[in-house]
């Protein structure tokens, strides 16, 4: 029950990522803002999330995982509700920044709690976590569309309400995990990045996340659809993310290895982004939905790799990895939208494809740092005939 309570709250937390997608044009219209100004909703959220990742381990090792989860949820509840009261883009961007702080405290700790509490081992726990991510990302646009068609403020109040439910579930169902014997040092996540395998994984993921959030943040503005239409497109995209995360990544890792899966999925994502850049309206919809497949594969493999590639404790490795990779999520929305406004709507996707190619180059040139991932792939092979149970 502890695992499922945390997973439910994680679904709602990840809903916050895609929640604003269907209502981005409505927010721009309602607050008389440009697309690049509205894109700062993503930038402030992920920039604060990235930096706050550096303190999550330090906090949780001192007050405990349960209290850290509750503190993160409480911040999300408060700032999501405040976001719904915004009267300007500046206010909304600021409240999203506070939301990002709560998100960081919750998300980094949730992964460690799920891995620690699950009975099926780290592999199954990470797949459950990624399933929560996929479900949350797919449900977010749908909830955003349903509530946003009524009023663009409604999705923010809806998220605050769902997070309050998650808060109650964590309070009542989660047994407080044991604190580590030695508190985590504030510098531990940065020190962990000195490991060649973890830094390779993190910086490859930074470029991948730039491509990922180019699609998520800029595409709603070129779809020229109602909130329901945008929500439907990104619901289909999110379903592809979830299915590829849970059912696609493990067998591919078993057959061709984690590093090769990353090469394959980055190449596919680059091709699909070029497809978006060169297509008309129907093509944009189709390629956007299909891009969820390589994104789902990447999410699972990158998360497993970050957890297993080094000897750092999982919460520390997660914090260092997420600090670097979420910088891609912070930079992409504003840069992509600004390029789309001032240069051309195809340019952000070409840049996203280039970022995928850079990620592949990093993987190739630093492949010797990733040899330890062979044991992750061996674990998938071992569980092929005896699936682990979470």
Secondary structure tally, helices: 16
How confident overall, as mean pLDDT? 87
- Which regions have little confidence, pLDDT < 50, spanning 5+ residues? 385-390
Gyration radius, rounded: 19 Å
Please describe what this structure looks like:
The chain is mainly α. Helices cover 81% and strands 0% of the residues. It has 16 helices and no strands. Helix 5 runs antiparallel to helix 6 and helix 11 runs antiparallel to helix 15 (347-365). The N and C termini lie close together (11 Å). Mean pLDDT is 87; it is low at 385-390.
Features:
16 helices, disordered C terminus
Question: What would a concise description of this structure say?
Answer:
With 390 residues, this protein is mainly α.
Helices and strands, with pairings:
Elements: H1 2-18, H2 24-30, H3 35-63, H4 65-83, H5 89-117, H6 122-148, H7 154-173, H8 188-192, H9 196-223, H10 227-256, H11 258-278, H12 281-290, H13 292-308, H14 314-342, H15 347-365, H16 374-382
Helix pairs in contact: 1-5, 1-6, 1-7, 2-3, 3-4, 3-5, 3-14, 4-5, 4-7, 5-6, 5-14, 6-7, 6-10, 6-13, 9-12, 9-13, 9-14, 9-15, 10-11, 10-12, 10-13, 10-16, 11-12, 11-13, 11-15, 13-14, 14-15
